[in-house]
């Protein structure tokens, strides 16, 4: 384990192998349960947004589980090589729902075929190193602001989920679970300190099942066994405007992925070589974009929440997540399992998110400490960018009605918007001039 990893008090570094059969079982199961979370996103945004039900929903959920497993596995083995979960990306997911609102079901379903083209384009750009060029302006100020924004956004979503039953007992149960998750991470002894998410999810499921707040109907609606379909919505050629929209959306998604991986490696105190950056961006385009769309599910991406999960679990070994991904792929063929994942009680998902968010906000602030100077200029750039991006994303839907779809997609995503704002303000509007060296030649 590297010196940097030791400073983080990691139980397992990225390259560490399991030290016992018990560790292999426990930490692999923990990742399997954590991977329930992106399944919920696949169901909550696109599944519900497009009104899927019955056999259509059952097949869709099975494919969501399969692609999460494949994306996470192939990134860990062939891409970034890190212990990072991949799941349905919020940026293209919202774009698909927006297409449904604008052009109806047929138009929205053509988004998946449009995204196949977009994924190929981004894979080429990533393989050529063009997307990695952003690294030239990826300063600690950009990284810190992005991570902080992910934390703020995650905390807002987490609280919405916790409060989904208003102020009845599930609300208080969700708060308790979030506090328990953080307490175990900080004060837990032995193995308890490294499985807070596992304990939180298992305890949460038990509490809500016993309390009668578990959606068994969703589980019963799923078939016992299901084979995934390819091109489930047909092979129609999407209209040009939809293709352009998805290409732009995918480029923003790739920038988001770059930032998430940079943030994760920043916590580890490591830097990926350029060849690895090209590789994981190509995997993102071809596997998490093209393959996901062929299966008719939203594009996947390594989540920003992985940063918080790293600090909560103290486990960064890719071995465990590879095992968990293989288990997830097998589980995707059993519909009832996918139903149980999708039916995760919202306060339980919110509790995990709130625990993750609490660490992300601190990580963002800590990233900015790498700056040689953090004065009035830097304070204003971060403060303006964070509050403008978060405030704009929280504006009512009517605000976006008069805007072009592309502009609305950009303004409505606080993570992407904060990245752009910080780069523009740091590199253009408030760019600091480097004083020229005085000539040493005297007259």
Report on the architecture of this protein.
The protein is mainly α and 443 residues long. Helices cover 68% and strands 1% of the residues. The protein contains 18 helices and two strands. It has helices at 3-7, 21-34, 36-49, 54-78, 90-127, 140-162, 169-187, 196-210, 216-221, 240-268, 274-294, 306-313, 318-331, 335-342, 346-368, 376-393, 405-411, 414-429; strands at 86-88, 300-302. It has a two-stranded antiparallel ribbon. α6 (140-162) crosses α10 (240-268). The longest helix is centred in the first third of the chain and has 38 residues, at 90-127. The relative contact order is 0.20. The model is unreliable at 438-443 (pLDDT under 50).
Number of strands: 2
Main sheet: strand order: 1-2
Ends apart, CA distance between termini = 58 Å
Helicity range = 55-70%
Structural class: mainly alpha
Poorly predicted segments? 438-443
């Amino acid at each position: 384990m590297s010196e940097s990893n030791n400073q983080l008090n990691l139980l397992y570094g990225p390259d560490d192998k399991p030290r016992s059969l018990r560790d292999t079982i426990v930490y692999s199961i923990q990742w399997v349960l954590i991977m329930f979370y992106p399944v919920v996103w696949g169901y909550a945004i696109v599944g519900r947004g497009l009104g899927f039900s019955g056999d259509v929903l059952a097949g869709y959920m099975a494919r969501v589980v399969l692609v999460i497993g494949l994306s996470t596995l192939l990134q860990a083995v062939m891409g970034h090589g890190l212990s990072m979960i991949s799941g349905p990306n919020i940026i293209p997911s919202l774009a698909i729902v927006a297409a449904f609102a604008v052009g109806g079901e047929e138009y929205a379903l053509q988004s998946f075929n449009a995204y196949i083209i977009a994924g190929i384009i981004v894979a080429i750009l990533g393989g050529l190193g063009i997307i990695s060029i952003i690294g030239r302006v990826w300063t600690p100020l950009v990284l810190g602001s992005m991570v902080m924004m992910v934390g703020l956004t995650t905390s807002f979503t987490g609280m919405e989920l916790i409060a989904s039953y208003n102020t009845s007992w599930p609300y208080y149960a969700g708060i308790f679970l979030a506090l328990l998750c953080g307490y175990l991470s900080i004060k837990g002894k032995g193995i308890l300190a490294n499985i807070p998410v596992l304990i939180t999810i298992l305890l949460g499921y038990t509490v809500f099942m016993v309390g009668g707040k578990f959606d068994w109907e969703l589980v019963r609606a799923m078939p016992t066994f299901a084979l995934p379909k390819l091109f489930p919505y047909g092979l129609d050629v999407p209209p040009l405007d939809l293709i352009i929209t998805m290409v732009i959306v995918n480029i923003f998604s790739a920038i988001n992925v770059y930032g998430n991986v940079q943030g994760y490696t920043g916590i580890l105190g490591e830097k990926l070589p350029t060849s690895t950056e090209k590789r994981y961006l190509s995997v993102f385009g071809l596997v998490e974009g093209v393959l996901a769309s062929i299966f008719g599910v939203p594009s996947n991406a390594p989540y920003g929440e992985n940063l918080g999960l790293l600090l909560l679990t103290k486990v960064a070994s890719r071995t465990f997540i590879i095992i968990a991904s293989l288990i997830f792929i097998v589980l995707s063929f059993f519909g009832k399992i996918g139903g149980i994942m999708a039916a995760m009680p919202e306060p339980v998902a919110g509790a995990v998110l709130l625990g993750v968010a609490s660490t992300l906000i601190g990580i963002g602030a800590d990233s900015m400490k790498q700056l040689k100077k953090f004065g009035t200029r830097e304070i204003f750039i971060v403060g303006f960018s964070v509050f403008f991006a978060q405030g704009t994303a929280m504006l009512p839907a009517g605000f976006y009605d008069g805007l072009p779809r592309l502009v609305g997609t950009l303004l409505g995503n606080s993570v992407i918007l904060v990245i752009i704002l910080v780069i523009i303000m740091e590199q253009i509007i408030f760019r600091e001039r480097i004083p020229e060296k005085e000539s040493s030649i005297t007259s």
